[in-house]
Amino acid sequence: xxxWLHHINVVSHNVEELQDFYxxxxxxxxxxxxxxxxxxxxxxxxxxxxDGAVQMHLAGRDLDLGFRSGNAINPVERGHIAFxxxxxxxxxxxxxxxxxxxxxxxxVATDSWHQxxxxxxxxxxxxxxxxxxxxxxxxxxxxx
Length: 144
Hints:
The chain starts with a strand and ends in a 13-residue tail after the last strand.
């Protein structure tokens, strides 16, 4: 099982302001790859930036996403750090073996990824996702 840093998610009430800031001040570029966001699962504004290696996802705060999806962890309440894996089944087993609870979002936000979320020991939200078989997302530079 491989695991690598994929993106950092920052949540705001003003995604456009954040996009301008991270683009103008830090030089992050808008993502050219299409990451289709499901409007029935997550309908707040979202933007995708990158430094060429790691992505930054800017998401509108959605305090009700956990309630609507039936999950205990809400990844767009405060934001999260995300890792991609090539074997989500093995990673879920690792969490279970260590007694770490997680919320399985499946494809709530996008059909392209299967996402799970859990907390680190101090309460930060962590995402681990795998590209879904049904997902049409093109691999990024980290997929080698």
